[in-house]
Write a structure and sequence with these properties.
This protein has 4 helices and 20 strands. It is mainly beta and 303 residues long.
Amino acid sequence: MKKTAVFLFLLAAMSLQGCIKTTTTAATPSVQPPQISKETVKQVEAQAGNIAASAPLKFSEMKGYFLKNSVKLPNDVNFITAYSDKSFDAALGIAKTMTNTITMADMRKNIVAVIAMKPSMTVNDIKINNAYLVGTNIYIDYEITSKAVSDVGYFISNMKVFEIERPQIVTNVSFSDPSKNITVLPFGKRNVSSPADVDSMVKYYTGTYKGTLPAADGPGINIVLALLPDYTFNMKQTYLNNPDRVFESSGKWAPTEDLSSAVLNYDKDASEQMRFYFIDKNTVEKLDVSGEKINSELYKLRK
């Protein structure tokens, strides 16, 4: 109950197992493909189709959008997930016309999944048959069928955009076709070393982190940050150019919904919050006020 309450508070504040062929690449606006470990892929595969342990997720098609030119489609079938307004806008644009009624995405309550095919002269229909949650993994069963008009005489891009109910915690999203070919994508800002689940986060990623971060008015600030398993923290900040200038603070912390970061003072005003990204079990990196990476290597703390 305590873990659930922590996650719900943070979200409110932040407003078949068998023969499976696996692909872990996907269309993405970024240069680097999403990172995911082979062990995680195997774990996600093992739960695919476990309906007895699943919870259904509502989903609906979104019309009136197009893929931006910056999005590359390296495979015959490509997948994109958007978890924020920023990631949505990076991949999709609105195809405005005089008659279109555009369904706007509510990224506070939903995630967005895009299934896109390489341009071809075949007209295909893309649909989702089922979406469900097992543990912290979203599973999407999709199907692609060719329409009666198979040759249109010119290249067209087949793609569909879907809005899917947003679970409380999401670590991975997988796409599975009728032949059980599966593609697994990490959700949100996860990396190959992000916590696999809540229990491993508490066991391996809590502890005391130390380091020196840049200061606006001096050579730096020595930081000692203790992330405790009971979701409280203590932090001591000492200015290097003035050892008597010391600030100590404590409060509550909670992970982001993708378990990629820790948010200090999640229950307070945004101006009092600090975010630290889990690079691995022994390293965190301070993020900016909007939760984005700072373009510098000087913001890391280590155990």
